[in-house]
User: Fold this.
Amino acid sequence: MKKIIAVTSCPTGIAHTFMAAEALEEAAKEKGLEVKVETRAAEGTENELTVEDIQEAEAVIVAADTDVDTDRFQGKPVVSTVVADAINNAAGLIEEALTKAENFESCQEDFVSNVQNNKKQRSSQRKGLYKHLMNGVSRMIPFVVAGGLMIALSFAVGGIHTKGRLASALMQIGGDSAFALMVPILAGYIAISIADRPGLAPGMIGGMLASKIGAGFLGGIIAGFLAGYITKWLKDNIKLPEVLKGLKPVLILPLLSTLIVGLLMVFVVGNPVKIIMDSLQSWLEGMTGTNRVILGIILGAMMAFDTGGPVNKAAYTFATGLLASKAAAGPTIMAAVMAGGMTPPLGLALATFVAGNKFSTDQKEAGKAAGVLGISFITEGAIPFAAADPIRVIPSIAVGSAVAGALSMLFRVTLQAPHGGIFVLAIPGAVGNLGMYIISILAGTIVTAALISILKSEVD
Assistant:
């Protein structure tokens, strides 16, 4: 039996979302089709489409008046329309989707698309606490990038004391605004991942309290999980008569969850976490040269170990969290982490060039794309190589990244932006000690390429 999948969503998320879903389900059944409809409503997402649902579907219908992520439907024929069309002409939409499916030819994937699909597959496989944490971290990163670069530019035009109107304005944009939103965004999107849309308000308010108390990103993470699970519990257990259901997502859930999370942050969680954050910052700022190098080795190796997996993300989250908390050691650790994340694909690209007889023709072509991904700080560019030969590739890229991270820490390189690869290096003030940073990345790249060239055998 052919299968159709759909997403419906209206701005208020109370009535039209479900009317459209019901119309599509009835029309599909009349045509003898299997159907699954994901509804994105005021209380959150229900009947969520899985990777298996998408793979099995002949076509996708997106009937929405709000933003819906359609990247997950890459490779499938998609019919996009407003939610009213699904209510008024569900049968016509299904017919249009089936016709589109018959004439649809999926494009052959190139190396970069393969890496992107791999990343999406990893994201879809994330579960539990890790999935919720990454949902918050990924939403926080643009604020860290924008805020960090604005601060760097303010130093570039106004000196260390940011003198002048332009420098002051840039500091106001980056330090006072973008950075002020980072922890609330982190907490809010952790809560959304757990409790869906009702988790946003208590999560962001809990994150703001963590910032004001001084509990930093660690307090924000705790606030996000508290808000998410408390809101979810309230959502699942508060039962109201049909006529009052509309009040639940807009009044009852935000009020009760915000009250509980806020009081917990102020009276229970905030101050103990502040003490932990203050101690961590004092320890990082007091590290001697040898300890800094050891930390750089550990963080660099973590970035390469699983190329975008949980270990990689743990190191990255630690660095961005410190940067977001304005810790003095944050820019130094961020620089080491990005250097360690760039060298795996860069080293592999170099290896395919200097030791071409040890790679297949396809791998040599893939090496060119890996180089582009490497300079963009997309560590996942190493995945196809690591998957094909993990015994030789993973130790090689881990050692190369450890070298890059150690040298970056040794030279006291600083980085104000948590992403961007070489494209942030040219921005004035973004990188401190730029020359030695480039040397650190080059050294890690060369070590990676040399080890792979030695360990791999010639291709027959």
